[in-house]
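## Example record

The block below lists the input lines for one assembly entry, exactly as stored, with component labels intact.
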Amino acid sequence: MIEFQHVFKSYGRGRNILADVNFRIGPGEFVFVSGPSGAGKSTLLKLIGGLEPPSRGATLINGHRSDRMPARARPYLRRAVGVILQDTHLLYDRSAIQNVLLPLAVTGHSPAQSLSRARAAMEKVGLAGKEDLTPVEMSGGEQQRLAIARAIVNRPSILIADEPTANLDEDSARRIMDVFRDFNRVGVTTLIASHDRGLMAEYASRTMRIDGGRFSDTPGV
Amino acid sequence: MMIKRWLNQHRYAFVVALRRLRNQPFSSLCNILVISLSLAVPIVVAAVLDTARPVLSQIPVSAEVTLYLESSVPSGAAAKLGAELKERHTEDVESVEVITREQALAQLRSRPAWSDALAVLPDNPLPDAIVVTLRQHPEIAATSTRLSAEWNELDSVDSVQVDSTWVQRLQTLLDFLSVGLGMLALGVAIVVLATVFNTVRLQALNQREEIAIARLVGATESFVRRPFLYLGALTGLLSSALAVVVAWGALQPLNMAIHRLASSYGTELTLRLPDAVSLVLAGVVVAILGSLSARWSVYRNTHF
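Predicted structure tokens for the full assembly:
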């Protein structure tokens, strides 16, 4: 469950990127966040992922006030939220499987258990057999799927993705979205920032729109 | 379950630290060499002190000054002069022993090597002697020098010999070395702190992306810092081990030279490394220092 109550976000003394944002997303929902570039979509996702605190207002993630969380508690929130950023943030000098193993090392899984879960995660995103490739040896779509595998390997209850299909061809974009839909079907709350109207029409059950820091919420597109 | 996870995290951090050392072999080796060479110096000094101290303790350290009187001095004058010296220098003189020329000759004759030589001499060539034992105090070397100069001016005295001042001087030198060893240890500690700090700083800058990604997937600050702490500790331990090897290597030529010198005195002397417990303890201390320095460095250099 994700809930924002009168959330504002600004950097320094600059204008509000988000202004008085209110919404509630229930468990297992599949939600698109749309809006023009610079509208605040990425900022919204960072607030949900606990990567940044709001300037004002209350943010509740799985019932916990993340805005009031001390810095040392935030990493535990991040483990419950799988994050896929626009830039995939992969380790390009490591193999694909080592990238997926990182979150499991963070949570202290044994090497054997980690390997088994990492392989399963890669299989789920269609990267079975590509464990030993480095990200530079993979296509853009495969890199995105690798980032997804890393985000889901710790079985988060929430998955957020920032423009995961940007710069991908239609087939690759569709495969990525199918992966998100599959996770959503097993109960993972999914939030995707995108301005691809075609994908929204096909996949969204609910769309939230941000423009100039203001927020509107509609079921479907 | 929690403990198992905690142990798994430590195992991961240890493996990451090893990988970081291995990924930059030349840089890692240079750092380890710098620290180990710095560590080897106090180990060699400690070896010298450890070897010299017991030997020195077996040598009589009371400063004795022997006055050899003119051969023309009548018998009985030695005893009178001895009593005068004791009375005049009560504060400095512990005891006075007079060895008459007859007693000296008798002592010499009791040694087989000398008896034949003395048999061919027409009369006793030995003078009366007064052996003055000085009181122990820190300035005993200076006192013995001053008194021997003063006594050398006496009419009845032919020559004065200070018997054991060199032992006192050697003791003073060893005391100085002990203080020096403390200073060296402090210097080495600073070298360890500075080298590990800089290594970890560069590593942290190199690993910015990995640290950022680890935080993104929920790594705590402890998780981020732990591999660096292991890196500091490993650097300290490996450097300590190499330092022992270097010090052992340095002692070999020293021992050959000392062996030749000691043989000429008919004795055996070998410089040995400090005992294993001390070396292991020193290694642990260096590892802890490395770890502390890494902690300090990583705290300062991973706030991004």
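The mean pLDDT of chain B is 85. Residues 2-59+169-301 of chain B form one domain.
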